[in-house]
Each structure stands twice: as C-alpha cells, then as structure tokens.
Amino acid sequence: MTESKHPPPAITARRLMRACATATLATVNNSGWPYGSLVLVAADHDASPILLISTLAEHTKNLLAESRASLLFDGTAGLAEPLTGARVTVLGRAERTADPQARARFLARHPGAAMYADFGDFAFYRLAVERGHLVAGFGRIHWIDDLLWTADTAALAAAEADVVAHMNADHAEAVKLYATKLLGQADGAWRLTGCDAEGCDLMADGGARRARLDFDKPVADAEGARVELVRLVKRARTA
What we know:
By secondary structure, this protein is α+β, with helices and mostly antiparallel strands. It is built from six helices and eleven strands.
C-alpha cells in the first residue's frame, strides 16, 4: 500500500480554518428553520473559531436561544471546478467570551473591526468545537472528532505579540519574501498579524489581501517559531 500524499484530515481542516477570514454561520431561528449568514472569523491558537457579532443580528438572536451552530469554511474560491476544492463544516456551540487573547487574535485578523468592537451590542464568541466534516475533493471526505490543536499553546500565545512585532519591525523583508516567494502573492507592504503553533497569518493593503504561511512542523514557543521562520526565509531566498 502506498502512503497517502495528503496530510491527515484534521491538519487539512485546520489549515483551511486558519486561512479563511470569513465563514458561513448556520444557526436555528425561533421557527426551527436553518439560517445562514456571512461572518468575519478568526482562529484562536488551538484553531477554535472566534466571532465578533451584534445582538441586533438575526444570527446572534438565534444563538442566544439555541447555542448550537455550524461554520462553513470555503477554500474553493478561484477554482474552475469548485467541487474539487476543500471546505470544512465545523459543528459546535457558540459561547460568549471576554478572553483578551480571543479579542486580540480577532482584531489582528480584522483591524477594521476595532471601530465597533466596543459598541454595547457587540461581543466576542468562541465556537466550542465538537466535530468537523471535511470535503477536500472527490473521494476525500471525513468526519473529524479531534479537530482542534491539542498541544499546550500557552507559551507561544504569551509571546505572540512580541514575535509579530519583532518580525514586522526588524525583518520586514523576510515577511515580504514569505508572501511573494513562498505563497505566490503580489508584491506589497506585507506584515505578520499572528503566529500560532502551525503557522503565521500575513496581511497587506490594510486587510484587502491576506495569506497563510503554514509551518512544515509545529512549534511550541517563541524560540521554535524563530527557528521555523529563519528556515522558511532561507527557503524563500533560494526559491
């Protein structure tokens, strides 16, 4: 039997979740009908989805009555045959959170949301994930029970702001190389906006362009991230 060339389903699903800036949120309204809406989304360090939503929105009213929800992360944009692309539906319960880490991760991903994040009707929510359903192309369909990253994220989470600030201030050229040489993006003022165990988030043009740089192997702390980022910039310079 030949070894699969594809990563394990949970890794494929998390990569897609971390890369997407929007998702389709499905809730249940008071008449029992499914209700779908477009939302901004960010991923916490373990890949748990984070939302910033208003109590004036129909989906929030639905969640306050029934916390069960799903998020569809769609990675098929730009494909001539969308059904050959990857998408993952994540099932869980939406829980309101005041965690400053969740807030920071979301606003780094969506800086424009800082304008309304402190409005009285807005609040952050984290989806407590129970299962995921990945469709990664024809014949690659999986239910995933252990979807989230389970290793300890505390050390890297505590150092994330310093890692990001250091890379943007002292290694801006390296960040640009990640985007242009490794990820095939057009030139621009690229910067890091986040770093987790499995990779980094990049942004240009105030959020109009985003990219995700996956690590070849996970890291546990700032030193591990430094080693991986140095290795990747060396690869970019020889690309």
